[in-house]
Amino acid sequence: MRPRWRKVFADLWGNKTRFVLVVLSLTIGLFTVGMITSGYISILEDMQNGYDAINPADLRFMVDPFDDKLLERVRRVDGVSTADGEKRLAWQFKNGDGEWENMVIRVLPEGGQTIDQVELRMGTYPDDRQIMLDLHIETNLNVGDTMLVQLPSGTLKEIPITGMVQDQTIGVVGTTYFVAPTYGYVTYDSLPWMEESLDYDNLLVTVDPTLSASEIDQVSQDVIKVIEQSGRSVSSVTNLSPTTHPNAGYITAMAGLLALLGAFSVFLSGFLVFNSMTALFSQQVQFIGIMKGIGAQRKTIVRMYTIFILIFSLIAMVIAIPTAGRAWTALSRFFSGRINYVASDFHYIPIVVALQVLIGLILPQLAGILPILKASKISVQEAITQTGIETDNAGKHKKEEQTRKTKGITRPVLIALRNTFRRKGRLILTLITLSLGGAMFIATFNVRASLDSYVDRVAKYVLADISINFDRYYPIREIELLTVAIPGIESIEPRAAAYCQLINYNGDAAESVEMMGAAPESKLIEPILVSGRWLIPGDENAIVLNEAFLTRYPDLEAGDTITLFVNRREVDWTIVGFFQFVGNDSFIVYVPLDYLNSVTGNANQASNFQIVAAPEIKQNNQVEDLVKQVDTFFREKGFHVNNTSSSASLVGNSTLGLDTLTIFLLIMAGLIALVGSIGLAGTMSMNVMERTREIGVMRAIGATDIQVMRQVIIEGTLIGLMSWVIAALVAFPLSYFMSYIINVSIFGMTGEYTLTATGFLIWFGIVGVLSMIASIMPARGAARLTIREVLSYE
Asked: Is 569 exposed, middle or buried (0-12, 13-18, 19+ CB in 10 A)?
């Protein structure tokens, strides 16, 4: 082996600390880029591919009870690919802890699933009088257990569990995925045993994928005509085309953040690599001078150190490329369980690997070429006479004289302050990497505070403590009188709901609208008005629309008339205002309860009641006990109860998706912060190694180990504090930008910008600890060197 290559390998192993720091810096940079880029590319693709695999419905119709004969007629409609029947029931079941919970039952089609398929994860599909459960809620029940269920009539039955499934359609209809109760799946043949008729009440349709939006609307109208010709009516139509996963908003938010973080990671990794290479080659100047002194040409030196950098790059790529891919696969599987999508198995993504290789090969060379060329130009005399101790000039001498006059600061501290700003370029790069990581961390808490603020505002629509839903209408007065017998109830308020449809330009019923009936004088709703006003006593056909109407029909305004198809007839409503609710594409309206009941033929009746608990119940945290008491009371009285729940649990469950998003943000911010902390550790180690001879001189004139360590720790702490100040300033615009991405992705609109001190304080503590850790190791190393070792250091 030629001497030049022996020199290269000797340099690699001659300083193991330097070798580890450089490889670690390159590896962390490539790992971060690979992991974040893999996530950005695969997460949306995984969700959509998994959702497409279950053949989701394009159209969903709520219809009067029907059988297979209607299905056959619908399947013959032009443009229809296939059609399935479905029935949904509301049960209660006793979980593994002995507590009663609500459950939605999906009755599987008699001929097997072709649309909205559930995927078996363990066990087997059920036979007659058996059930499968979805995995999205922990019930503490397992395959092989027997579950006790209560039917709407109050009848108790035991049913064995045969399997566990994943149902990606949870949240498409009804409540969102994070609020949805446990789902169970039974066979069509089990209906008589469950005291239900052998029929369906939901029609699911998929259409030819080549059809345009207007052609799909025409297919919908054709299907409605077939249904009406059979003597049945359609209560609602939901057009789900193009089909997207019900939790796509969360994944879109993640993808948007990953794009932002991906740009950050490439940016920070570049700084990290540049910092490492610059510090590395500043230590090679003397060796270059010696080689030039014995005849080495400039191109030979450049080639040597190009190979030198390449070795670091190859080692880093061998470590980073497979670990980044596997790390994202593990993280994706974790999030897929929380957001209900199917994550793909581990595989290399060619474009990600290519990006890592490109960065690994080119970026270190670009970072190293300037110091290599600079060092190769230096004269032999300059190179071999470098001592590692900076020489003074007039300007620096004057500044130091001014510094010495500073009162209350000891000379060792002043030296530490001077050393902090000695390598300004390296300091700036270190501050940038650490500050951006800190800004991401702080912004995560601000974003979560903004999301919580939005949830709190939406919760003002459910100010009652308990909500009880019946599967039919009951006289309002009867329910009010019965609740008097239940201790702990302060008041009760009726509500009604109806599914209606917009009337399109052809005069046909089109998109579904969820209509809520409430008393105008209700104190259990504090609406967030966008424009106009809320319902007031004396209103009849007044209607308040959510912001989805403004998005789709921006010309609408208060005072206009809107026609809706309600209870099989057209009804004109006068728009009095617009309110903000959940910020999605669903149409939601509020109308006066009495007028809605007159339209639907349910005068003085309601199917939902909002209950306010007595103050002592809330003070003693007994609301959940009251929920059970109310549910049991009405079931024992023979009422058909669908479910009873507390508003607190509803709001709490609605934040589970936001919790997942917060975990995701913290992991990503932690990864960026790790890049910054590695940069700080590298900077401190390189600074100490460059000043090895200087430290020896200080030791020779009496500096103690503690004084040497204190200087290094002060230097690291000062860099950490400066990075915190910069991070705090950058966090303000970054928080706004991230909040905008998430709110638009999940809620379909911008939210309220909220700041919290939590992130600032936590990051202050973290950056302090990181600075201490990054400084202590180099400081201990410097303090352990003997005077002879440091003065003979090369």
From this structure: exposed
